[in-house]
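pinging the channel bc i need a second pair of eyes. not urgent but kinda urgent?? the chain im working w is below, pasted from the shared doc
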Amino acid sequence: MGDLHIDDFYRDSARILLQLYRHFPRRELIYTEDIAGPDTPDDFGLPSDRHQACFATMLWLAENDYLSYDSTIAQEALDQAVLNQRGFNLLASLENQSEYLAEEASQEETNQEANSPTEPITRSQLLRYKLKRESSTRLNHYMRHLLTL
C-alpha cells in the first residue's frame, strides 16, 4: 500500500494545475476547499491535516515555478494565481497517449477525451482523463513523469 499523503499530493497537484490551465491566462483565486473538499477544522479552528497538505502543495508548485500568486489568504487560498510558463508548457505540450493510457481503457472512453486513440493529445487532456477514470497508482505514475520534465 502506498503512502496516502503522496497520493493526495499528486491528485491535488493535478487538480490545481488543471484548474489554472482552464482559466489561463486569467489570474484567479484558488481555494484549498475546491481542491481537497470541505474542511473540518479542529477544536481550535485550525485547518485539518488534509487541508494543510493541500495548501502546502499549492505553495510547493509555486516554489518550483509551476505557478505564481500575489498573496495567500490564511491557509484557505492563493489570490491572483496563474500558471507560469513552466506550468503552461507542461500542460499544453502534446503527449503520445498510447504510452500512458491503461491497457484496459476502452477505445470508446478514450475517444470521449480525445479525437483519436492514435493521435497525440495535450498533457492536460490526458491528465484530466486520468483524474476521472484511472487508479491513483496510474495517476501517480503520470504525475511523477510530468514533474520530472
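so The radius of gyration is 16 Å. and Residues 95 and 125 are 9 Å apart (CA to CA). — does that match what u expected or am i reading it wrong
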